[in-house]
Specification:
By secondary structure, the chain is mostly helical. It has one domain. It is built from seven helices and no strands. The longest helix is centred in the last third of the chain and has 33 residues. It is globular. The structure holds fe (ii) ion (2 copies). One fe (ii) ion binds next to α4 and α5.
């Protein structure tokens, strides 16, 4: 009789399911990594700075989309921090626009990058990871958090591989730079 190794393969290929809070922290790490690389790239490499700023813009915009479409609405009744988080996203978006507009060869870019770094740490690390997420993990249903984790990961992958999303983000960046003073 033939053996059937397919079952084992299926087990190995099944994605590991994680709570929504874990999925979001992992994406925060991606954002932090980009920020670290930006901070380590000198003014003498403006092309690389610009490419990293573009990548940060796209990833942060997608992060805000998945939180605002899926996570925040589902957690609205679990923690009072959601309303504040929403308005912090608006501030982050404004700062992101200021960074993308800044010429990467100038001190202004460094200043906008510094403000961006502080704003991102304050929101993602202090407000979400240190306050909101532990509260959510304590009070929200575990199965719901795992289901939301699947949805967040799936939505993020779809956004990343969507040609339309990529085009819209590219247009937004181009428009910001065109209106830069
Ligand atoms: Fe957020
Ligand atoms: Fe976040």
């Amino acid at each position: 009789m033939r053996r059937r190794p397919e079952v084992l393969t299926e087990v190995r290929e099944a994605p590991e399911r994680e709570k929504a809070t874990r999925v979001l922290v992992e994406h925060h790490e991606v954002l932090r990594g980009l920020m670290r690389r930006l901070l380590a790239t000198p003014r003498s490499q403006p092309g690389r700075r610009r490419a990293l700023a573009d990548e940060l813009f796209d990833e942060l915009r997608m992060h805000e989309v998945i939180e605002e479409e899926i996570f925040y609405p589902a957690m609205r009744d679990v923690t009072p921090g959601i309303a504040a988080a929403w308005s912090e996203h608006r501030q982050l978006s404004d700062q992101l626009a200021a960074l993308v507009r800044a010429d990467p060869r100038t001190g202004r870019f460094d200043r906008e990058l510094g403000v961006m770094h502080d704003a991102l740490e304050s929101h993602a690390h202090l407000d979400e990871e240190r306050e909101m997420f532990p509260e959510i993990e304590r009070f929200a249903d575990e199965d719901l958090l795992v289901e939301l984790g699947d949805r967040l990961r799936d939505r993020l992958e779809r956004l990343r591989s969507s040609r339309r999303t990529r085009m819209v983000l590219r247009l937004q960046r181009a428009l910001l730079r065109r209106t830069a003073r």
